[in-house]
Amino acid sequence: xxxxxxxxxxxxxxxxxxxxxxxxxxxxxxxxxxxxxxxxxxxxxxxxxxxxxxxxxxxxxxxxxxxxxxxxxxxxxxxxxxxxxxxxxxxxxxxxxxxxxxxxxxxxxxxxxxxxxxxxxxxxxxxxxxxxxxxxxxxxxxxxxxxxxxxxxxxxxxxxxxxxxxxxxxxxxxxxxxxxxxxxxxxxxxxxxxxxxxxxxxxxxxxxxxxxxxxxxxxxxxxxxxxxxxxxxxxxxxxxxxxxxxxxxxxxxxxxxxxxxxxxxxxxxxxxxxxxxxxxxxxxxxxxxxxxxxxxxxxxxxxxxxx
Amino acid sequence: xxxxxxxxxxxxxxxxxxxxxxxxxxxxxxxxxxxxxxxxxxxxxxxxxxxxxxxxxxxxxxxxxxxxxxxxxxxxxxxxxxxxxxxxxxxxxxxxxxxxxxxxxxxxxxxxxxxxxxxxxxxxxxxxxxxxxxxxxxxxxxxxxxxxxxxxxxxxxxxxxxxxxxxxxxxxxxxxxxxxxxxxxxxxxxxxxxxxxxxxxxxxxxxxxxxxxxxxxxxxxxxxxxxxxxxxxxxxxxxxxxxxxxxxxxxxxxxxxxxxxxxxxxxxxxxxxxxxxxxxxxxxxxxxxxxxxxxxxxxxxxxxxxxxxxxxxxxxxxxxxxxxxxxxxxxxxxxxxxxxxxxxxxxxxxxxxxxxxxxxxxxx
Amino acid sequence: xxxxxxxxxxxxxxxxxxxxxxxxxxxxxxxxxxxxxxxxxxxxxxxxxxxxxxxxxxxxxxxxxxxxxxxxxxxxxxxxxxxxxxxxxxxxxxxxxxxxxxxxxxxxxxxxxxxxxxxxxxxxxxxxxxxxxxxxxxxxxxxxxxxxxxxxxxxxxxxxxxxxxxxxxxxxxxxxxxxxxxxxxxxxxxxxxxxxxxxxxxxxxxxxxxxxxxxxxxxxxxxxxxxxxxxxxxxxxxxxxxxxxxxxxxxxxxxxxxxxxxxxxxxxxxxxxxxxxxxxxxxxxxxxxxxxxxxxxxxxxxxxxxxxxxxxxxxxxxxxxxxxxxxxxxxxxxxxxxxxxxxxxxxxxxxxxxxxxxxxxxxxxxxxxxxxxxxxxxxxxxxxxxxxxxxxxxxxxxxxxxxxxxxxxxxxxxxxxxxxxxxxxxxxxxxxxxxxxxxxxxxxxxxxxxxxxxxxxxxxxxxxxxxxxxxxxxxxxxxxxxxxxxxxxxxxxxxxxxxxxxxxx
Lengths: 307, 364, 505
Prior knowledge:
- The complex is a heterotrimer of chains A (307), B (364) and C (505).
- With 364 residues, chain B is mainly alpha-helical.
- Chain B has a single domain, classed as ABC transporter involved in vitamin B12 uptake, BtuC.
- Chain B has 15 helices and no strands.
- Chain B has helices at 2-28, 30-49, 54-66, 69-94, 102-119, 125-154, 158-178, 211-228, 230-240, 242-247, 252-279, 290-300, 305-329, 335-347, 350-363.
- The N and C termini of chain B lie far apart (49 Å).
- Chain C has 3 domains: 3-237, P-loop containing nucleotide triphosphate hydrolases (Rossmann fold, 3-Layer(aba) Sandwich), CATH 3.40.50.300; 243-334 and 421-505, Rossmann fold; 350-420, no CATH class.
- In chain C, the strands form 6 sheets. Chain C has a 6-stranded mixed β-sheet with strand order 6-9-10-3-11-12, with helices on both faces.
- In chain C, β16 and β17 (320-321) form a beta hairpin.
- In chain C, α14 (406-418) packs parallel to α15.
- The longest helix of chain C is centred in the middle third of the chain and has 16 residues, at 174-189.
- Classes of the chains: A mainly alpha (307), B mainly alpha (364), C alpha/beta (505).
- At the A-B interface, α5, α11 and α13 of A face α6, α7, α12, α14 and α15 of B.
């Protein structure tokens, strides 16, 4: 076995795949934090959406419907988080943790009810990979980018759209204003509450899309806790990317690489699986430690009180 | 005559003051109590919608948890590690930090205790037990120290780092117990701890061990440290207003680091207690999420040590009663986790509870 | 003539305080109308109601004769009312143009922000009203005076015919104040109505046509400027004459308590904030430091109290080098700090009065046995003593400090700091946000400590306060002391010049 067995084009294709859920969740984190609400429930939103997507696909046979419902479920959890933190000014970390734990319990519970096993669902119809005609024939790039699950392409599109919306549209301006200086936005006649809700619900929807990828785009089933901390790694990617969609995408590539590498190493049986599994988490801690000092968050996250 | 009267008055004074204290303490816990009730109501809806009878489920849980001595013993056994992790979260919160990695700190502490327990033979229990406990505390403390240093020196948010290290602890110990320290057989676990390192059972035939006593001692110690020592004062000041604390000469960074170390050590101690008292060895996956229970319990307990004990018993009841419930009604055990998360969510919205209270006042 | 705006019978209560008590207020078109009163009189609340930020508990509002239900700033803006707040409502990372069009964004095909056209439109306004700004600069890079101009343009851009200015000169140096006054007169000439909120008598007299005086939430009266005088207004504002001078004990031959030698310090962003600052303070002396906010004052305070690392130079307290001493050591050596924001840096709001009173001494005898265990008995009697000595009006020593009034809170801070018998007091904006009574108390206490041998460093944006209290006045500019003068022959004009970096002989 030599290095080419580990580092090859397939690895980079896998990197792009593994970066997808992290990017989507990170984008979710960006929209929430940019309006001034910390959302550590990305993990729980992804998980619940992953489950919902599989459940819908199981009952309807239509994976795309599953993706749609997944996004909606994520948005619903976002609504709850917004309700608790914006309207009731509850502690954002506590609310997020509650949602995360709920997701774990609820998905396992329902998994048992539907498929009789809390560990894994049965296989369901999932999204088939598609190939982009001319792109796939370009050497190397084509192998990485040419044939992927549709959601990977959606992710790239969403990233570009997010960057555009945030910095080139009026709503993006308002989002940034509400997070950074809610009083200024308020006196400018903007409904701070409505924009915050928007940001957090969108955040849930994006996380939901990421969750849908994990269960329907990447595999074709749901397993217990399948998000494996990616919702938290996404937060690190968000910070690393300085709360900018393109930056978060870049950081997610790095984490996706670690994820893909870890899977590759596991399948090659070089090291015990547990050691390899630790890698992405250690990498996240190291990355966070290295970068955070220079990154200024876009908000002070205090609930806005008109007084 | 006058003396007797005075004596009676003084007695009245003391007992009426005590009553007033208890009443005010209970009144302060009212929002949390309502949150618990609300959570159970929503949980009932979930059960009903999926075809189970909430009344049956809750009744079975209650009977399983408190129905007989065995049930009570198991309830307290399950409550024990939760007390540790709840104190861990509580202590970190008091200093202003969110330690959500108590699960990992518990696990790594348990493993460290197991290591000490299996590595030495022929030590008197008087030395072996404290040594193992110390190892567990130090390991958990280290697991809290790392995020603390990263936060203090580099500003890395401890929510993410404690969470990540939790995963690392899970996988690291899993590796340890699947390879180098694996006992012969199919199960991923270590060999038995030397008898001198094990904690005695205090209520056979239940699994209740001396770990429970350690937990209660820790509760009292935590209250004492927070309220009656300079360090506790500095921790509370740093958590409530770090700027003012700094101005008052408190080294906030150092206080936070020590607090997170102590927090991790508490969770580690909890893991040691489980390994040394309940299982007698380190088993991969021995914790069904005690770290998360601890978080919920700390919040429900209103972040004060006595409330923590009450809430821990409640959650211990959920776990032990839950096992009975699953066996009898075949409802997935995860309903317990759902209930816990609902409690957290309702506790997270204190204004919601106050809202409801005020709304009911209006109506009445 | 229809009034531009009328407010009739406005009442507004907050928990525990009646901010506006059946107030009547009206302003005519093309008038500069002053709203005068001391801190806490209810001026800002009244105008916030006019701007739709608060809903009144009673009363009505008429704009241009028509009754309006002012339920939000959007409504106020629609009716031609604009407000420039004390704390600017500008988003730091956005540009001037973006801030101005926020809420009213200029777009291409409704989806894309047209930053060029926005910038152009703002430039037009800027020129029409002669308010110079760089429309493409991010707001955080602007001077305070420039930011204020942005706020005014913002209001005008939204069609304001009535402009409310809330304490606009609080953060300006005298020269910038002059420019602002010119701009206000220009606005009046263009037919705009300007409501000028202030507690500064002289300013209000100099620029306003009419003045409405509020006291403790009630209307005292409305007068024409031509028909009133400074003393009359002062009497209307307060029940008694405002004390302007303090009798200080003359002092001879005192020792140097604080010596600051060539201190260099870097700020949050890594830029030099103190560039070799140097001065001395003697015992029994108040050194007042005047300067525009942002010239190194907060960094100086932090360097002296040990909260910011000193990159170069040295600090001596009674000949002991404390340059690298920790805050704890400095407290022990006799440095005390009255911070600018008592709730953010001075007190722990959720702690009780007693717990706040021992902050800083919680590790020492007699409050801590063997430096570890708190002795509540000792802390309790200490607190009782201080509550009596400083007349701290609190229900009990266990009351959380957040429940107390601003003036009472400041007393807690003073009690804690001064009862330690400090050698040096660093007082940073000690009377900010306090009413007249509390302000007088704080100033009196500072003078008392000075008379008893303390060295006092007073940093304040209130030039009157500096001139009334200081034995010497130093001016800070761009991280250095540029002048030290005798208050008796330094007037506001000279100070303003020095504060802006100018020189006088």
